[in-house]
């Protein structure tokens, strides 16, 4: 993968140019489109497998989202790609010279991948809803689906930002992807079984806590541990980018 170089005349400072630069890099990376397509295919397959003709569409939609988080890494990997491919192909130096200051590089990537993750997951969930409504004749209740979907989209957007920050910190893709896959499972099977106060468990399980937003009656404060984790990691990534050599 080679980045599309901007003409010298277009290398003027400005956040709008930084966003344009990152959007060009994002849309010209084939793996991002493959990840988005894979997320869509997986969601449709999960919907088809989970549907029981005896169930209302709300039940099926909820069942799909209860396991779809496992495949959320497909979307979150776009955040990892934003820095992982830069370091893999050595284009981070060009990016740092083109977009100044370096903190602006991170901010532009954050906005690009967060918007991409939100739009992708919204389309994926809409496709799942339509499959139930059109092909199985079991449309989920729109208001309930909107609540469930909002919580899930927020979860995916935050883990995408976590992946972005981790890739910036470790200068690669493998470890961030492994963390996004393994950490949520460790929460489920290890930390969740500890005999700890509920408030402490919520703090120690940022991924699991955020997934509890996927509910018809979401408790929005449960997103705070994952939100704080993403903020801390992004802050550390910003410091690392500004203080170290590319």
Summarize the structure.
This protein is mainly α. Helices cover 74% and strands 0% of the residues.
Written account of the structure:
Residues 4-12 have low confidence and may be disordered. Helix 6 packs antiparallel against helix 7 (142-170). The protein is globular and about 60 Å long. It is built from 11 helices and no strands. The chain starts with 14 loop residues before the first helix and ends with a helix. The chain is mainly α.
Give the SSE layout.
Elements: H1 15-27, H2 30-50, H3 57-68, H4 73-89, H5 92-98, H6 102-135, H7 142-170, H8 174-189, H9 198-204, H10 206-211, H11 224-243
Helix pairs in contact: 1-6, 2-3, 2-4, 2-6, 3-7, 4-6, 4-7, 4-8, 6-7, 7-8, 7-11
Summarize model confidence as the mean pLDDT. Answer: 89
Radius of gyration (CA) equals 19 Å
Can you give the helix content as a percent range? over 70%
Beta content comes to: under 5%
Straight-line distance between termini: 18 Å
């Amino acid at each position: 993968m080679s980045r599309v170089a901007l003409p010298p005349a277009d290398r003027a400072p400005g956040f709008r140019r930084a966003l344009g630069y990152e959007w060009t890099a994002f849309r010209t990376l084939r793996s991002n489109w493959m990840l988005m397509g894979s997320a869509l295919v997986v969601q449709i397959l999960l919907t088809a497998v989970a549907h029981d003709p005896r169930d209302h569409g709300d039940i099926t939609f909820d069942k799909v989202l209860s396991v779809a988080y496992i495949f959320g890494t497909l979307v979150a990997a776009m955040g990892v790609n934003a820095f992982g491919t830069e370091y893999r192909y050595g284009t981070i130096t060009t990016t740092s010279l083109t977009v100044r200051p370096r903190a602006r590089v991170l901010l532009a990537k954050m906005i690009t991948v967060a918007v991409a993750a939100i739009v992708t997951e919204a389309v994926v969930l809409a496709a799942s809803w339509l499959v139930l409504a059109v092909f199985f004749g079991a449309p989920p209740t729109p208001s309930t689906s909107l609540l469930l979907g909002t919580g899930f989209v927020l979860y995916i957007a935050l883990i995408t930002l976590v992946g972005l920050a981790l890739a910036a910190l470790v200068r690669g893709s493998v470890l961030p992807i492994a963390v996004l896959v393994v950490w949520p499972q460790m929460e489920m099977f290890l930390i969740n079984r500890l005999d700890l106060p509920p408030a402490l468990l919520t703090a120690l399980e940022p991924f699991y806590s955020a997934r509890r937003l996927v509910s018809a009656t979401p408790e929005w404060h449960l997103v705070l541990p994952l939100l704080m984790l993403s903020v801390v990691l992004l802050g550390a990534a910003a410091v690392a980018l500004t203080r170290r050599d590319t």
